Protein: CoA-binding protein
Organism: Roseovarius spongiae
Amino acid sequence: MTPAQAHNFERLLNPRHIAFVGGADAAIAIGEARRAGFKGRIWAVNPRRADLAGVSCVAEIDALPEAPDAVYLAIPAEAVIGALRRLSAMGAGGVVCYSAGFREAHEEGAALEDALRAAAGDMALIGPNCYGVINYVGKSALWPFAHGGACPGGQGAAIITQSGMFSSDITMSRRSLPLAYMVSGGNQAVLGIEDFVEAFAARDEVRAIGVHIEGLRDVPRFERAALAALERGVPVVALKTGHSAIGAALAQSHTGSLSGTRELYEALFARTGVISVASPAQFLETLKYLCVAGAPKGRDVAGFTCSGGGAAMLADHAEQIGLRFPGFDAAQAGALGALLPPIATVSNPLDYTTPIWGQAERTYPAFRAAMDREGVQSAILVQDYPAAGLDESLPLYRADAGAFARAARDCGLPAAICSTIPENMDAETRDWLIGQGVAPMQGIHEALNAVLGAADWAEARARIRAAPPPPLCPPRGAVRPSPRDEAEGKAWVRACGLAVPEARVTDAAGAAKAARDVGFPVALKMLSAEVLHKTEAGAVAVGLDDAAAVARAVAMMQAEVTARGGAFTDRLLIEAMAPRPIAELLVSVRRDAQFGLALTIGSGGTLTELLQDAVTVLLPAGRDTIAAALGRLRVARLVDGYRGGARADLAAVADAIHLLCKGALAQADTLDEIEINPLFVFQDHCVAIDAVLKTAAAPAVTPGDPPQDPAWDQPHPGNQDQIHRETAK
């Protein structure tokens, strides 16, 4: 937001007066402002009605008594531009444009939206084609339908959605999520997700921000806003929907099958500490945990049930997702055992058993003893509450819940009570638990996932604040990529500082001599920018031991390529065979129109698509980030010496990939994609065995150096020497 827009957004959030412009929809919105508790002045504008929802109408905007702080605009699209011009000229603050019929509707709507943007001037405009905004803290609403939600205690989540109906569904949810603000952004012609994240992160009443994303307008701006929220200690939870299929332009490369839209968004979230969730229920439960309990300092949990089955459910899912229930040493076990009935077994999760159920004077000491020990960072209790009419035992449940809440407070731990089945926790109980400072969680899996997400956020915040990522490589305008042949690709890779096999480019007549110069055994490859996967085209032969074998392979290749419908080119690559590696990797850097340059690392060779073992990282990225990404791969077990096998130097592998990234960043204006598959990993070095290059212009021999940044630009000691030795072979 500009400073003027930020000022006007504040007026929109906390208006002294609201003007409702329109007909039936505007009348409903007046009712919603009243439902929210708005006590300011309400004005109505309609040239043909005497009143809207009991508010006397003026015939036109210019007849309003003064410039309104907030405006709800629900008029035909063709009238919107003129209305906005008049509102801007009179100094209105912000506008919710409920009107539809813009970019979302037809081609002409895009031009109309451009005009809307110009007419808005410095006003803070939400929409068009949106529901609007609800301020639960300041008690105002510019909203077109009945809405629920509340903000007990004056702090809660700020929700930003692109879907109006989803935002409405959230306000009606039976999850007791404390809500501070709700924004349905619609087309985001003026203000977008990035603006709202930035604005809400600066507000003390916002404990967490929830973002429903269909698509981002400006990825680098979102990165800055998310990092600002992280710095302020405001977690951002994202539900990304509408993942597009991988474009046809990417289908030719292995990378295209491994790194699509979903992976790029996940890389962005990982880079900025955003908690990514996969379902609406998880979205709400994670936000609720963060708003009520806060983020634990780690993954170690003290769990409690009054059922062996519940304890097993906690333990099973925690093990699957990576939460830990630390056990007890002998002294701790003895002290806790003395507080439990003889039938209880000291364990974590702890089934404290029914003989002490509902007796706070007995359950509190047990809860406290299990929580108050080094290494426990949060606590969770499983309770399914009785249904209405069957709730004579409710005081017993509440007694244990109160004892648990008091023990958690005394130990300074974030705490949650979760029901096994989501609906088995009534609204009164949920509200009571929030009053106790305990998050009322609905569903064991959702609860544990929320604890994990919150703990990981705290860890990511510490890590990112210690070493902030450099700004993302900015997206470039559209380019017309041209594929290069493997020899050109290898030259590009070698210029970056990576090792490639000794090789010669020749024609069929000179193939035997080239092979003798390189030294047997050799591989024979047909060079063609149009043939990216040589095995499928019959354009590669390996393990050729003498000149006769080379001659036979050339003749066979010519026949095979032709038989498969290809065109044989008399441009061949003779290459030294590399020994068997410890592991094979795919390493790729490619351009994305929104995200800039993205690095993908995965299992390489012929099993790339089958294994689907890959990680995507946005660039620039430091060597430590690259090493961490390598460590998340399944193939990392091979690199680390699987079952007593040879072990590679992970730092050397990360260095080699880092060099490739530096070269890509140096040529970001022209590079479309560079893919190495496979990259052979040996004990102390790597060799690029195959390379696919696509650039917008003929590649330079030397990529050059990107801007220096001490956070990611230092090579690992010794790696350069090994690369030069390998290149010289």
